[in-house]
Design goal:
38% helix; elongated; 11 strands; 274 residues; alpha+beta
Length: 274
């Protein structure tokens, strides 16, 4: 939240429009006069010359570019937060536990908050979202207890409130989709999870998104410097986004592939693979 607040403070007032979910996108006009229309969930429309899609794993902008939807990795992740008003007593280190087909970790966030995570091959969780999360948390507790995880780590999971627990299947963008697909077209490109959703083994999802931002800023910065010399504004911006796409394509492919392979090895049931 501190990082988001700092970034928001750098922008002119009124730049950010909150709770504005994009549900569809289309191109309007012909030739050099083309504009992009973003249709929002509340029925309103935003017109733009340039769109940078950072709209997550289910990106509308990525779909508009023709990128296929992220695919299931065959594993799921459950995350939660436990609060200890009187202090938790954990040291400043990450505790990680690897068992038969699962991997779990405990990480203190502050003197009173402890984050935990658990990834595994999916277990059946029928019912609505709240019921599914409850079943998954029960599954996590049972698996960790069976693996004889230390009691203090097990208590972190048991102590977390249901509202602070989230469970979802792990998806990733197929590396082949990025080899063949379009990361940018005209005045449109994607970044962050819209570009490279990946499994969490390398801990690089957010880091890669920050890299995207730095590279994109450099490319657009050079483009803005040329606008005084070049009359065709659209061509300059398009060239900048293409330069960005070329720089990020193979980096994204490498990270997605490495994360998937590491997760496959760590959580394989085959002793030779592990």
């Amino acid at each position: 939240m501190a990082l988001l607040s700092w970034l928001a403070d750098e922008l002119p007032e009124g730049t950010i429009r909150y709770s504005a979910k994009v549900v569809a996108m289309e191109e309007d006009g012909v030739g050099g006069a083309k504009t992009l229309q973003l249709h929002l969930a509340d029925g309103s429309t935003i017109k733009a010359k340039v769109v940078i899609g950072c709209d997550g794993v289910n990106s509308v902008v990525a779909q508009w570019l023709g990128l296929p939807k992220p695919i299931l990795s065959g594993r799921s992740a459950t995350r939660g937060l436990a609060e200890y008003p009187g202090g938790h007593g954990f040291g400043p280190e990450i505790l990680q536990f690897i068992g038969h087909g699962f991997r779990s970790g405990v990480l203190p966030c502050s003197d009173t908050s402890v984050y935990w995570n658990y990834t595994c091959y999916p277990s059946p969780a029928d019912g609505d979202a709240e019921e599914s999360v409850a079943k998954m948390r029960s599954h996590v507790v049972a698996e960790l207890r069976g693996a004889k995880v230390p009691a203090e780590a097990l208590e972190v999971v048991e102590r977390s409130e249901m509202s602070d627990v989230a469970s979802s299947p792990l998806r990733f963008r197929s590396p082949l989709a990025l080899v063949r697909g379009s990361i940018s077209r005209g005045g449109v490109c994607v970044a962050g999870d819209a570009l490279h959703p990946m499994t969490p083994e390398l801990g690089q999802g957010g880091c890669a998104a920050l890299e995207d931002g730095v590279v994109l800023a450099r490319c657009l910065g050079k483009a803005f410097a040329l606008l005084g010399q070049e009359r065709d504004e659209g061509r300059v911006v398009t060239a900048a986004l293409e330069e960005y796409a070329a720089a990020r394509r193979w980096r994204s492919i490498q990270l997605i592939t490495a994360a998937y392979v590491v997760g496959f090895i760590q959580q394989s049931n085959n002793a030779v693979v592990r």
